[in-house]
Amino acid sequence: MSIGLGVRLDGPDGSADISGLIGGLKFGSVAPGGFASVELTLSRPLSTSDLHPFSRLVVFDTETGRQVGGGRLLEPGKTVDASSGQVAQITALGEGLAATQDVTAPYFLIDLGFDQWVQIDRNRKAISASSGQAPKGGNNNDALVMQMENGGFSANVGIIMAHRGPALCGMQLGGFSFRHDSGMVASSAWRIRGRAYSTGYGSSQITTDDGLTNTMSARRYSSVTRDFTASRTVAAVHWFNGSSGTADDNTWSAMYYPCVLAQRLTPQRDPYVTASAYDVTEVYAHDAFIDSLARFCPSLDIENARIDTATLPLQQLAWYDGVNAMGVMEDVLAQDAAFTWAAWELQDNGLHAVEFREHDTDVRYELTVDGGFSQPAPSTEVYDAVVVRGKSQNGRDNSVTVTRANALLDEVGLHRTATIDMGSETYSTTAATQAGNAFLDEHVNPPNAGTVNVAQRVWDHVERRYVKPFEIRPGWNARVFGVQPKRDTLNSGAQDGSTIFRIVSMNFDTNEGVAVCELDTPELTQMRAIARLARSRTRRA
Amino acid sequence: MSTEQLQIVDGVSETPTVLLDLHNSAPLCVAQNGFSSPPPALRESASAALGDGDIVTGSSYADRVVTINLHVLSDAQGASLEALQALHRFVDSAGFWLRRVPAGGSSPTFYRVKRSPMAAINEYNGRDDGLRTVQLDLRADPFGYGLPVSGTLSIGADPTSGGISYVWPDEVQGDVPAPLQLSHPVDYVAPVGYGPSYGRERAWFSTAAADACQVTWVPHSAMTRGSSGGGLTLSTVSDSGRFMTGSAIRLAGTKTGESTVASGATSLAAGNYRVYGRIASSDIGAGVVPPITWRMYCYPYGDGPMVEAKHETSDQLIPGWVDMGLARLPKGAPLATGGSMAWGASSEAVAFQVEAVTAGVVAAHFEGLLFVPAGLDAASSSRYLGARAPSSSRVAYLDGVGQAASFVDEASMPMPPEVASIEGLGWPALVPGQVNTLHSLSRDTVPELPEPSLPLTFRYFPRYLYARPALS
Fold it and tell me: Which chain B residues are within 8 Å of A17, Cβ to Cβ?
């Protein structure tokens, strides 16, 4: 039986079938990410090897015509040596992994912090505003506080504090909101106004306009289309008094709980300018997936993608020092680990299919240990507490400790604590708790950090057919017959002689004819390593 | 009775030009037992299995080594060295063709030889006539080739009238599978507004099995139409100018959700099938219509669709072939272990439901389902190739030997394939000793109706592990 794989090379001059010229074909997929890599040796005199950068390799199962691997040329590896002659050792990186690292740029979706709020206009010495605490006592909430020096003042005193996140990121403002409180019992002369500016603070629109009272206001939302035009890039708060008056100790006003949202893109890559979408103080993992791919990855087909809806609110996603789509998804999935994403085959429309999918708890593949199996299960990966470090909204170092009783550790009277670092880009108390819980979810039991070798066709419950080893897609669960069940979060309860794992990567080597599937290894760890390499020069520690 | 023939020739043909005769043409002569061309070694990709026996996931042939022992018989040293030099020039060249007819045989076998070593030259000391023996270890393509088999055939476009399949009537020559070389016209230009030209995009399936692997076409008239409801009206409409079968199920109305379009049953041999729907989803008179997802469920129902495809709307209500995906049918049939050793229910009955998931305004037509074999359990071979000709091309050439597609335009100028225009890469091939079937399906979105049948010119070079018998 011929192995039935074909490889196409797409260059700027057209496509060519190189199946007859290659050797040592290896390809694989990962979760999250999808098709991950293709390696092969192209035996062709270097004088005729015209390998363009960014050419595309597509690996087909010739029996079904399905694409089973692929990637973008990373390294043509032209070599000449005595043993192998003139060859190109080609390495390609899967389009999902490559495209999500193409663009590194300042980016934010939601910012609940005070870091970015700066003063952009002030017309009297007596008026000032700064980040701190309101002169109220018994209240340690951070706020942007406007205060007046005591004494008389003339009409039209004002100060403007602005959040320039969208402008800094080359994005548009989607919405912003805040609550406010004041020392004055009630003043209709003093106003606190929401304003939306263009970059450079030229023209602006008043989006909300309240008098001041000494009770905490309801949240005041300003959203695109309804309250300001779609091209605004700066959110601002404007304290203003049109009349003259006398200031005393109560002449202050505080803005609490600011939330600034970037205007997102739709899966069609159009601006998403529905006001109600921004009358919120959170975004979700799928929002981040859609927007970062629509914005940064033109080769991925987000429009026709399967996108599951996440329900865990995310409240701090801002990378003003630059990030790429992979970094966004890595940080997002660190908080909401119930999801995975992948980019798969090239479609007729010239784009690659992508998916953002909630982990399925059903078994997809039925495997056996016949081809080889290993199952190291390091107990060093078991923790009952995690400290999540980061910088809070006002720039202070902060941490959240998440603990959870762990039966394994309790049995032996141990406590094990890990520390993870979220930085300031995604840190909020809520996010830290979510990330801590996601971490503990993965560290309840020793992970089945092993591999299973697949050398035969196996049953696929989703495709409902026997698939070849190289058709196995990571990110799904597999049942491995012949293994004593171990306690693991993904295992079925019953001891049925089988154990269920999540496949996190598949690597097929045509020399061996075997697909090596990695099991359960915490998925994010692998991707974190890749992403960290790509972002190490661009990201704040 | 013919004598042994061993010649270096200029190519594979009935009457090639002989460039150097290696036997019985002084001074060169093949020694007794002097020709050996054993079948090439088979390399296997296998793994150490924990069950009994090896798991062989793939295998391929290594190069052939042709060993020839020659006598250089001459009566003068000069002539001997000249003959050797002529031989050296071929052996050291990039490649040449070796033609052999064994003594008493009638059919030549051709070997495509690569640059090869002269293994040994033995001198006979003291002789002035230049008598030498020479051993050649020629490296060659794994298979010997026979004279090409060529001809023309025609593949219908319409499964309702003769099918989209061509079953090879003659026994395929050779020992091992031979890739096909095909050419066909791409000469129909569709009227403006009717989508791409007919014949530009084609899907090729080549199968080989003990019996012909035929496609199965189930028209809507052989199914039970779903019922109207939820804002969607289902009706049967007739229009011979629009529908291949003369009629179709029409879906009209406004509905968000899933609706049963039709249900039916057929009988299929166990294996993988590519399921195509003959479908039109349109926005005629209804403004912009959201894409419709078409699904096929199989009995027992209730655990999700077997295949599904999201179909973008077009501006015509003429159905085209929509690739809904790959399915194993009958659902969940156990994998046959080979021939008569299979154990399990033998039923080949497949009951199915076609569903449409709509998201608002609907104007669509459904004409039927086509099941194309894509690796039956009983099949020894199945290959898929998708090819799209450049828009101005007139003739398409699909070369399974060179694994390349090329095209010729109106001015007879050659055109390269466009980027990503070849997919699947399972170049059509013929397998000796099996019933070979070639299926071809136009993938153009809006083909002309009725689709004309496709005239094809084919050629293949039979491949031999050893030597060619007289007739096959």
Answer: 403-404, 422, 425, 427
The structure tokens listed for B172 are 């395929």
Question: Any CB–CB contact under 8 A between A67 and chain B?
Answer: yes
pLDDT 10s digits, B429-452: 999 988 999 988 877 655 455 566
State whether residue B160 is helix, strand or coil: coil
Angle between helices A429-442 and A325-335 (to 10 degrees): 80
Distance CA B408, CA B416 (A): 9
pLDDT at residue A400 greater than cutoff 70: yes
- Residue A62 at interface with chain B, using a CB cutoff of 8 Å: yes
Q: What is the DSSP string of B316-381?
A: ----EEEEEEEEEESTTPPPP-SGGG--S----EEEEEEEEEEEEEEEEEEEEEEEEEEEETT-SE
Q: What is the DSSP letter of A217?
A: P
Query: d(Cα B10, Cα B101) in Å, to the nearest integer?
Result: 16
- Chain B, 132 to 191: residues with Cβ < 8 Å from chain A are none
H/E segment holding residue A412: helix A407-412
Q: Does A50 touch chain B (CB under 8 A)?
A: no
Select from A65, A21, A100 the least CA-distant residue to A535: A100
- Contact by Cβ (8 Å): A313, A344: no
Q: Are strands A417-421 and A385-391 parallel, antiparallel or unpaired?
A: parallel
**Contact (Cβ atoms closer than 8 angstroms) between residue A513 and residue B56:** yes
Min Cα–Cα distance to chain B from A327, Å: 30
Whether A426 contacts A335, CB under 8 Å? yes
Average pLDDT, rounded, for chain A = 86
**Residue A314 φ/ψ, nearest 5 degrees:** -115, 130
Tell me the residues of chain A between 194 and 213 that have a Cβ less than 8 Å away from chain B: none
pLDDT digits (tens, 9 = 90+) for B65-85: 999 999 988 888 888 888 889
Instruction: Kindly list the residues from chain A whose CB atom is less than 8 angstroms away from the CB atom of residue B60.
Output: 2-3
Which ipTM score applies to this complex?
0.85
Q: What is the C-alpha separation between A65 and B387, in angstroms, rounded?
A: 11
Q: Which residues of A touch B306 (CB under 8 A)?
A: 464
Residue B426 vs residues A459, B180, B207, B329: alpha-carbon distances, Å: 23, 11, 11, 22
β-pair type (A373-374, A451-454): antiparallel
Distance from CA of A293 to the nearest CA of B (A): 21
**Closest by CA position to A394, among listed A142, A144, A164:** A142
Residues of chain A with Cβ-Cβ distance to B320 below 8 Å are none
Q: In chain B, which residue's Cα lies nearest the Cα of A69?
A: B424
Q: List CB contacts (< 8 A) between B302 and chain A.
A: none
B297 to chain A, minimum CA–CA distance in Å? 11
pTM attached to this predicted model: 0.86
Q: Is the N-terminal amide bond of B300 cis, ω within 30° of 0? A: yes
Collect all residues of chain B within an 8 Å Cβ-Cβ radius of residue A67.
423
User: Is the CB of A370 less than 8 angstroms away from the CB of B49?
Assistant: yes
Q: Is B380 exposed, middle or buried (0-12, 13-18, 19+ CB in 10 A)?
A: middle
List pLDDT tens digits, range B272-318.
899 999 888 775 555 666 788 999 999 888 888 899 988 876 666 67
As a three-state string, the secondary structure of B373-395 is: EEEECCCCEEEEEEEECCCCEEE
Test B49 with A455 for CB contact under 8 angstroms: yes
Q: At what angle do helices A285-296 and A325-335 cross, to 10 degrees?
A: 170
Interface of B with A in 309-328 (CB under 8 A): 310, 326-328
Tell me the C-alpha distance between B318 and B320, whole Å.
7
The CA distance from A493 to the nearest CA of chain B, in Å, is: 23
CA distance B423 to chain A (A): 7
